[in-house]
Amino acid sequence: MICAVIFDMDGLLVDNAHLWFKAERQILSGMGIEVDYEYVQSFAGFRTIEEVRAWKNDFGFTEPDDQVLADQVEGAVRKLVETEGKPLPGVVKLIEELASYHIPMAVASSSAMELITTTLRKIGVAQYMQAVHSGEHEKRGKPFPDVFLSAAKALDVEPEHCLVLEDALVGVQAAKTAGMKCIAVPEAGYDQAAFESKNPDMIVDSMENVGWNLIKEM
Question: What is the domain extent for residue 209?
Answer without folding.
Answer: 4-15+86-215
